Amino acid sequence: MSRRVVVVGAGPAGLAAVQAALAQGAEVTVLDEGERPGGQFWRHHESLTDRRMQHQLARFERLRGALERATVHSSASVWRIEAAPEPEPAAPKAAPTLRVHALVGPADAANRRGITVEADALVIATGAHDRALPVPGWTLPGVVTAGAAQALAKRDGVTPGRRTVVAGAGPFLLPVATSLSLAGGSVVEIVEAVGLGRLAAGWGRSPWQLAGAAGKAGELGEYLGGLLRHRTPYRLGSAVVRIHGERAVEAVTVARVDAEWRPVAGSERTVECDSVALGHGFTPRLEAAIQAGCAISPDRFVEVDARQGTSVPRVFAAGEVTGIAGADAALAEGAVAGFAAAGGELDDDRIAGAVRARRRMHAFAARLATHEIRPGWTAWLDDDTIVCRCESVTRARIAAYSDASSRGMRLATRAGLGACQGRTCGRTVEQLVGGGVDFDRRPVLSSVRLGELAAVHDEREAGASDQL
After folding, report:
1. Of 241, 256, 280, the domain-final residue
2. Torsion of CA 449, 454, 458, 463, to 10 degrees
3. Is residue 376 part of a domain?
4. Same domain, yes or no, for 105 and 154?
5. Which end of the chain has fewer beta carbons closer than 10 Å to its terminal beta carbon, N or C?
6. Is residue 306 within 8 Å of 196, Cβ to Cβ?
7. Which residue range forms the structural domain that includes residue 328?
């Protein structure tokens, strides 16, 4: 009998898992929040966006084609995962069933349909969302995350403004700037917090280990070529430390920062612009893995073994949720996870290529630590800088309750209790408080109306009555 595999997420890792599980003969069900598959990497519209913004489109088409042999639920918000423990040795050998509960329909719709998917194995490929550090003035209209700016360009062919400053840290700033330029906007400059010395030390060590990621070098060449054509300045060791404007963005203050990202006094300069794209790395979406009971590493990623298996039997994880490594690593990890979830073994020749690709791309991913956030960034905050945007909580209010318990701090300040449930501000609040607060653990994975929960309960009650 073929295994039933459910895949949560239809980005690169999820799609690769679907294809591999199908190849192993599994029955696959896909649950994805998006309206269409592809995730952030393949967030595009065939008729609206420039194909030069897209990479590996041929591979995407092959992976999307595999979905025709799977059961796909788009606009599906997973709100609960039940991962039963392995049965006792004396119990029947039949494996306990995994259950994934979701609501299908637009997130703001009032008539979403509740579904429960039962499976023999689960692949968690929930990815990550980009993180933006707070800056005085970042609540002005015209300020977006780098991921949002790229999504607008890729999906809709528009830009957040005519003249955009792209600021933060990491290689992701380059494709964002390229996408904005191709969509018709002007990138005033790219502001990268990491200095030249740290970049050279991080990316220059053991260069032979990057030989297997030659494709990344090609992408880098394309991005740098675009910067040269558009004469876009690339400022290293600098940060946007203030955003100015009355009713919308009018300019930013850029300052040099030291190795810990503390602004250097006297180095400030003003750059005129009408929009800002902020991106300071990525935060994995751990909610599903945590609710399933998966072990989380000290650096806050899902722990997996060589088969992409988690600490929970028959639960696998792949992609950015296991470590920020880029789309190529996610594709390789997803293929391994899907194949193993369907009962395949790593010594099978059909998965050997993915195993090798995973090893190569992990060497590339190790260099991304060069761009990790340094603690000195808090020096550019004012007391009245809003940290939690949902509840308009300032830095000063958070500091006033920094010695309270996790629950006490949240109740007193409302930080993390808004619509995003701490997904945007959580890690930032944790850093400002200095520990003792954990925003990763939430009772449900996505926002659910009480009426929707009541409807699910009523349906279960009705089903139970029908079986009597």
Report:
1. 280
2. 60
3. no
4. no
5. C
6. no
7. 4-128+283-367
Residues contacting residue 333 through CB under 8 Å, at least 6 positions apart: 13, 16, 308, 318, 319, 322, 325, 358
The pLDDT-based confidence of 467 (bands split at 50, 70, 90) is very low
394 vs 377: CA distance, rounded Å: 16
pLDDT digits (tens, 9 = 90+) for 374-423: 999 999 999 999 999 999 999 999 999 888 887 888 888 999 888 888 88
Domain presence at residue 361: yes
- Residue ending a domain, among 318, 336, 367, is 367
Residue 403, Cβ neighbours under 10 Å: how many? 11
Average pLDDT taken over every residue of the chain: 87
* 290 and 354 assigned to the same domain: yes
Residue type, 277: A
Tell me the pLDDT tens digit for each residue of 56-84.
778 888 999 999 999 999 999 999 999 86
Number of independent structural domains in the chain: 3
Let me know if 58 is exposed, middle or buried by CB neighbors in 10 A (0-12, 13-18, 19+). Answer: exposed
**Is 417 a member of any domain?**
yes
Global pTM? 0.90
Q: Are 44 and 154 in contact (CB under 8 A)?
A: yes
Q: What is the CATH number of the domain that holds 28?
A: 3.50.50.60
User: CA-CA distance, 125 to 10, in Å (whole number)?
Assistant: 7
Tokens of 135: 């800056």
Q: How far apart are CA 443 and CA 103, in angstroms?
A: 16
Is residue 225 located within the same domain as residue 154? yes
Q: Which is higher by pLDDT, 192 or 450?
A: 192
The angle that helices 12-23 and 57-66 make with each other, rounded to 10 degrees, is 50
**Residue 448 located in a structural domain:** no
CA pseudo-torsion sign 36, 38, 43, 48: negative
